[in-house]
Amino acid sequence: MKKSIIEIILLLFLSATSVLAENVDNKSCQPDKSTMAESETNAPRLTIGGYGEAVYSRNYYSDSPYRYMFADRYKNAPGYGRADLPHVVINLGYNFGNGWTMGTEIEFEHGGVEVAMEVEGDEAVELEHEIERGGEVFLEQFWLQKSWNNSINLRAGMIIVPVGLTNSRHEPDGFFTVYRQEGESTILPCTWHQIGISLWGRTGDFRYEAQVIPGLNSRLFNNSGWIAGASASPYEYTVANTLAGAFRLDNYSIRNLRIGISGYVGGTSNDAYPRLVSSNGKVTTITDGTVLIGAVDFQYQGKHVTARGNADYGYLSNASAIGTSNKNSDNSTFSPYQHTFVGEKAYAVGVEAGLDIFSYIDRLKDKKFFVFGRYEAYDSYIPAKDVQDYKWSDRQRFAVGINYRPIDQIIVKAEFSHRMFRSQYNNEPSINIGITYSGFFKR
Fold first, then answer.
1. In 317-393, which ranges are E strands?
2. Residue 441 · residue 48 · CB < 8 Å
3. pTM of the model
4. H/E stretch holding 136
5. How far apart are CA 218 and CA 359, in angstroms?
6. I need a labelling partner for 132 at 20 to 30 A (CA). Which of 39, 102, 228, 314 fits?
7. Mean pLDDT score, 283-299
8. Using one digit for the tens of pLDDT, what is the confidence trace for 377-434?
9. Which residue has the higher pLDDT, 325 or 143?
């Protein structure tokens, strides 16, 4: 089943690529906006920008964590609604001159964390430390860069790891759906950012990037998200006993079309904390493993049609032993680690396309109104032969909807989506509505 789905998606991918290449207009495909911003070494000294999303979802299925374990019990369970701020981001950049630049990105996920010291008058004027809202606030990017020319740039600090389509283009105008691409965001960190060093540049019709970053912590792998949560650290620092490498190569030689390949390789065994010492004085390491990821993606942006697609495949060596070790590790209330098995393999494939209706109407060409469709299939847990399987991790999803752009920086999104499982589980339909902005306020 999985093999046939992958083959179908790859055939669609190749067919779409060939058709789009034959129907280009006179406008050449430009690099992503993030790439263009990187290259502007003569820009004004201070740049301020950002993006944000506000979303309402109505989900017509149960939110119980037991809905897969006891599927029959939750077949007719009531649905639920949610209002959310998935991402609100502030970008600050500075050009020091002589090729030296700085970039930062501060992200508030799900509204951030609201913590306050409050006075409770009805409790003898007791001071209480209260959490008002769940969420996250973190520094997603902070880097310094030296640029010699467009083809040679060296960057160091907290950087984006550009593996997969979402990590290379995660702003809300980089996807039609209300939320980011579900399959890729399930199996890979999103947005994947780590402290490291990056060498990148553009020469001719190619843009390249190669990175050295810390390896992932296998104790944070799990069955529902594969390695998605492993780039973060529960500590005040990231353990970096093992290093990893990531790369990306994009080609723009066909007008209106960008095709990219990316990958990652890194060990996991030594990046857990603490490392214990046995009686003979040797370090007791977590079971060795290596993560391998390969990905291919494309984006076509023509006069009337915009299309994107991705195919990601991941492999974890020694997954059976790593999962067993995680399952039997410390399970105390405050343990930051996962306690599930982990898949030996994971994959995500998807394609989306949108037709701009307003592009056919002369008086509305300064606005955009896309009608789009998206299909994806993914599995976060394909186990080794001797490990328990969880069939609910194998999913498909389709979405249809609209994107209205009154101006370039603002998009109103609406969609109906349907997540599909194997027959023993209940499918999960939903309606999502969102409004987004993305752009620079000062350049």
1. 345-356, 368-382
2. yes
3. 0.85
4. strand 136-149
5. 48
6. 228
7. 86
8. 999 999 988 888 899 999 999 999 999 999 999 999 999 999 999 999 999 999 999 9
9. 143
Which helix or strand (DSSP H or E) is residue 319 part of?
A: helix 319-327
Residue 163 near residue 142, CB atoms below 8 Å = no
- Which helix (H) or strand (E) segment holds residue 115: the answer is strand 114-120
CA separation for the pair 293, 405 (Å, rounded): 35
Six token digits for residue 386: 């001797």
Rounded distance, CA 29 to CA 251, Å? Answer: 10
User: Residue 57 — pLDDT band, cuts 50, 70, 90?
Assistant: very high
The whole-angstrom separation of Cα 288 and Cα 264 is 17
Which residues lie across from 428 on neighbouring strands? Answer: 419
Instruction: Please compute, for residue 93, the number of CA atoms within 13 A of its CA located in the half-sphere on the CB side.
Output: 25
Q: Residue 151 pLDDT more than 50?
A: yes
Helical spans, DSSP H, in 92-206: 165-168, 182-187
The 8-class DSSP code of residue 392 comes to G
Range from 100-114, 213-227, 252-266 that averages highest in pLDDT: 252-266
Distance (Å, whole) CA 308 – CA 259: 10
Residue 84's SS3 state is strand
- State CA 139 to chain mean position distance: 16
Q: Give ∠ CA 288-293-294 in degrees, rounded to 5.
A: 155
Beta bridge partners of 48: 92, 442
Residue 4 dihedral angles phi and psi, to the nearest 5°: -65, -40
Q: In whole angstroms, what is the distance from residue 187 CA to residue 100 CA?
A: 35
